[in-house]
Queue: 3 jobs
Job 1
Amino acid sequence: MKILNLYVGIGGNRKLWGNEHQITAVEIDPKIAAIYQEFFPNDEVIVADAHEYLLKHYKEFDFIWSSPPCPSHSHIRKELAVETGQNEAIYPDMKLYEEILLLKHFFKGKWIVENVISYYKPLIKPLEVASHYFWSNFHINQIKTKCRTHMGTIEELEQRKGFDLSKYSNIDKRKILRNCVEPEAGLHIFNCAFKFKQEKLI
């Protein structure tokens, strides 16, 4: 299959997909894109605006995964930062819903859009799986996962997500790791999309 993976970060969702497919990964930050390329040397990595790339190229793929930036939607940011004065209120980034509507009405393949649990009632109803919101055109079975270790140390996050960032510098390792979708959740959803054998995940 030809797969488009958008806003890839270091590839948490993609980590367990294997190398049987032709994967195009889009990441806007060159430093992070370079790390992704080291982890997944068989993928084509493009440094670009994922939102614009999706609009121009969505017809070229069989499966699309999109994880648009989430802070402006996050209930954690609102509850722990805005309400305590650490951050200012910001507009929700509506590119999230633009992509959902584009894929729902124009894309012919399988697709999924992932984001955080929001502080408001979602404008388009998602499915909540593994502490994430998902919008898709296929059914996703529920899954039990280990604790996300979201507030843990960098070392705890590395162990939880299965990435070693020790050799990299001048990057926000905590932010990068916290933005990673849990690899087992990424594999579970990938399998649901194509009705592959479901793994027993804990």
Job 2
Amino acid sequence: MVRCALFAALMAVCAWLSIPTPDIAFTMQTFGVFLALGVLGGKWGTVSILIYLALGAVGMPVFSGFRGGAGVLLGVTGGYIWGFLATGLVYW
């Protein structure tokens, strides 16, 4: 469980490393997601992604641009973020 929490935190840090563009920022989030899945495996990597999404949904600034909340998950980049969960489920 500690490793899941650590990788959720790693995904948050990777989200803050970005190349700004007008609409969508290119971040290292994808690297964090695939690193979690590669190291933890499908089941625990997916749990780590769920923790990351839950932190963002309650308003913690874990998404790119130090943003958080349900508005981000339902906004322009929300589908991309939900795709992380789909990736984990497919990998599992």
Job 3
Amino acid sequence: MGCTLSNLEAGNIFALLGFVPDALGEYLTNLRWQLVSDRPFKSHVTLLPPRVLSGSAEALSGLLGRRLASIEPFEVSLGQVEVFPATGVIYLGIEAGSDTVRRIHAMLASDEFAYPETYPFHPHLTLAQDYPPLDSDELVDRARALWNSWQGERRFLLDRLSFVRGVDLCTWQTVSEHVLNHSQRPRTV
């Protein structure tokens, strides 16, 4: 998959991401870079996969803010390196927090944010995609070794989400940041 979008999609493709903070986020971003260096995305959990939406970024951001108003921060715990068989995407599974990610996705993926998704939604953190198929086994082994060498915490508090717009499939700009509702104590899962 290339990085270009059709003229009809340019500026109208959006996604909702939760970036992994602190040392864990830095480590995972570097891990991603070591696996596929031409895709230097910051490590994140996707709550709304890329989708073409109509409407202005400002209006969509306002609507998104209202829908997220009742969502509380939640803990995400990362599991093992896995591979989606249909696409070859190498990812980390989400252990704690996956039900909350699914619930948020289901709540948001309707009305103005509806879009036909190619695959069923599966909470995860992508490590590598769009690499030559011959490199698959080597990349999976390297991803496992790098992840197993991480001695730090494998969980983080997801307390803010970023609504982003694709300039192309490799360049994303933040439209808005949404701090999750801190009115109640963050719950641990």
